[in-house]
Amino acid sequence: MSTTTLPEVETRPESTDSTDSDEPKVFHYVRKNKIAESAVMGTHVVALCGEVFPVTRSPKPGSPVCPACKEIFEGLRPGPED
User: Where are the residues of the annotated region Disordered (predicted)?
Assistant: First the structure.
């Protein structure tokens, strides 16, 4: 098994997997520069875990995060500081 590191990934949690109450089950990490485009244009984003979905919600502090996305994000090397 080999591991690949994504270059300079800026991410922010975004939601998917709605429940009956229209609240997302978990939030996924996606590239920051794709969030606004998806929210406005309805295009799909690809989460670190590979899930593909349109951005429909923003996370609140304490929101549940996809375990696979979290594991991948924590394993990434830090990018250049802005």
Answer: 1-23
